[in-house]
Amino acid sequence: MLPVMPHHERERFLAEPRIGVLGVTDTRGDRAPLLVPVWYHYEPGGEVVVQTGRDTVKARMLRAAGRFSLCAQDESRPYRYVSVEGPITSVADPVDPALREAMARRYLDPDEASAYLDATADQLKDDITFRMRPQHWRTANFAAFAAEFAENGQAEPAGSEG
């Protein structure tokens, strides 16, 4: 059994600035789901927010599927991840400039964020925002598992599929 995170821990983990991997059903025939790394925004108890170009393959698939999943992970040991999946609750077109700025500042230091926002200002008229209400959660936190191995003098586990 995977060592799951309690509710408050998974919410806090997802709210931290991590690169997420968005997954959505690929509608282009006999293909696996589309998986792409994305910046996202989340506050505990709220919705997952992602932005993308209005005319991208990703945006078309999100509209068609009406739902998506997002996985965020900590790549350092002991490994942890949170995966959420749920329905799209709204699509904002165009992007709210304040939200775009908040997301840039979430992922970049202040000088980089300002330069990024200046360099990509035209995207404001091309991007849209998708909001998803988390409905299903999957989590794992291998900290306790790793501590047990360390106490027994065994090597720390490399991780597990979840």
From TrEMBL:
GO cellular component: cytosol
Example GO molecular function: coenzyme F420 binding
Top-rank taxon, per record: Bacteria
Keywords associated with the record: Oxidoreductase
Gene3D superfamilies: Electron Transport, Fmn-binding Protein, Chain A (2.30.110.10)
Oxidoreductase among keywords: yes
Membrane-spanning parts: none
The protein's name: Pyridoxamine 5'-phosphate oxidase
Organism: Streptomyces mashuensis
Lineage: Bacteria, Bacillati, Actinomycetota, Actinomycetes, Kitasatosporales
